[in-house]
Amino acid sequence: MGLVIRALILFAMVACLTSIAHAIAGQATFYTPPYVPSSCYGFQGRGVMVVAANHGLFAGKGACGRRYRVRCTGGTNAGVPHPCRGTSIDVTVVDLCPGCSGNQVDLSQEAFAMIADPNAGRINIDYHR
């Protein structure tokens, strides 16, 4: 039985490392309600745990409905040097962020507030599907 437990622990560790290895480093800002209309769903709401993707990630609406896990990794300004709350969130792509750079996403205000202090305004993140 000890061998089975060791194997399960090893499998869990490898699974965790795999998800970390595939995470994309970037930055996040937030936008405020209303979240409709959106590029993906028009006036049909998808809740508040949503994200607007940069042009590359959005892929001409190809990312609509994709879910990403997002984690704050640090601050980007001295005003709020430690904004992260130590949690991660799952968000759904519902819109395009036309002003976002290639490594940036725009979280809903509610999603941002779950992982970081909104006073930071912009944070460093890791995200993956």
Tell me about this structure.
The structure is a single chain. With 129 residues, the protein is α/β, with parallel strands linked by helices. It has helices at residues 2-21, 55-58, 109-115; strands at residues 24-31, 50-53, 67-75, 88-96, 104-108, 123-128. Strands 1-5-2-4-3-6 form a six-stranded mixed β-barrel. The model has no long low-confidence stretch (mean pLDDT 89).
Helical fraction equals 10-25%
- Arithmetic mean of pLDDT: 89
Radius of gyration: 16 Å
**Uncertain spans, ≥5 residues at pLDDT below 50?**
none
Class from helix and strand fractions: alpha/beta
Shape: globular
Write a compact overview of the structure shown.
This protein is α/β, with parallel strands linked by helices and 129 residues long. The protein contains three helices and six strands.
What is the topological layout?
Elements: H1 2-21, E1 24-31, E2 50-53, H2 55-58, E3 67-75, E4 88-96, E5 104-108, H3 109-115, E6 123-128
Parallel strand pairs: 1-5, 2-4
Antiparallel strand pairs: 1-6, 2-5, 3-4, 3-6
Summary tags:
single chain, 129 residues, alpha/beta, 3 helices, globular
